[in-house]
Fold this sequence. Notes:
Layout: H1 3-11, E1 21-23, E2 28-32, E3 39-43, E4 54-65, E5 68-76, H2 78-86, E6 90-98, H3 99-112, E7 130-131, H4 141-148
Antiparallel strand pairs: 1-2, 2-3, 4-5, 4-6, 5-7
Amino acid sequence: MHFTDRLEALIETIPLKDVVLWHAGGHIAVGRVPRTDRWIFYNLGSFPLGDETPTWVYLIAFPDWCGERFVKIGIGLDQRVRDHESRGGVVLQKVKVPRWQARVIERLVLRQYLRQRPRAPLPQYGDTECLVWEAAEKIRLPALVRTTAAIKPESAPPASDSV
């Protein structure tokens, strides 16, 4: 049985409107192009999947950042989220997942929604992860957590203690 034949049977069982992904080894996942019958390979970047550090994936609204409004997708620990809140950001959604999964979710969202880089840079950085205001209504972080959980890479072999 071919790899795509095994995937074909799963498509109807996953209740997603846009992207369905499966881990295809390394830093690649395969998925179906939204609203088509075509398959596409997603290069998820050069970061090492498998980092299990609990990390927040968050969606924060900036309703008035120097006269602009936008939302920001981001990943980080508690302090990173508090930094955004202290500068006027309002947390819309946040979920805690392993760091590898947080990075995958962030990249998927950034590829799927129109970006809006604020004219006045954010002092805590992250300008390139800002999206148009309307994206907030469409992004569902819990659904992305369920979808991306299946692409967890194989565990790395334990490090040897011998020198």
